Amino acid sequence: MITLHEVHEQGSEAVRAAVLAFGARHPLDGPGAEPDWSWAEKHFTYLIEAIMGTAAPPQNSAAAIVRRTKNEAIGFLLAVNTRPNYRCPICVKRQRHSL
């Protein structure tokens, strides 16, 4: 499974900007603080696991599923990067469960 760090290292400028924006959604001590990359990485992994759970038609090979999942996760980062007030879906889900 690809990590957020690997996506940043291997990605285009747009992908790198999207990774940085995703990290910024996970501040250490509140808005404006440095990103908590450990937390962002965990949430990216959870996001990939959620995508992989929906991307596994039986006729596809494991390599094809992993490749599709990686592309979908990067597509997600690029899509939400253009939205100024989006929230990490994993953070939102966890917040709902803690209420």
Overview of this protein structure:
The protein has about 100 residues and is mainly alpha-helical. Helices cover about 70% and strands about 0% of the residues. It is built from five helices and no strands. The chain has helices spanning about 5-10, 15-25, 35-55, 60-80, 90-99. Helix 1 runs antiparallel to helix 2 (about 15-25) and helix 3 crosses helix 4. The chain starts with a helix and ends with a helix. The model has no long low-confidence stretch (mean pLDDT about 85).
The total count of helices amounts to 5
Distance from N terminus to C terminus (CA atoms, Å) equals 31 Å
Total beta strand runs: 0
Q: Into which percentage range does the β-strand content fall?
A: under 5%
Biggest sheet record: none
Secondary-structure element pattern, one letter each = HHHHH
Report the helical percentage: 55-70%
The helix-and-strand class reads mainly alpha
What oligomeric state best describes the polypeptide chains here? single chain
Could you say which overall geometry the principal axes of the C-alpha atoms support?
Answer: globular
Low-confidence stretches: none
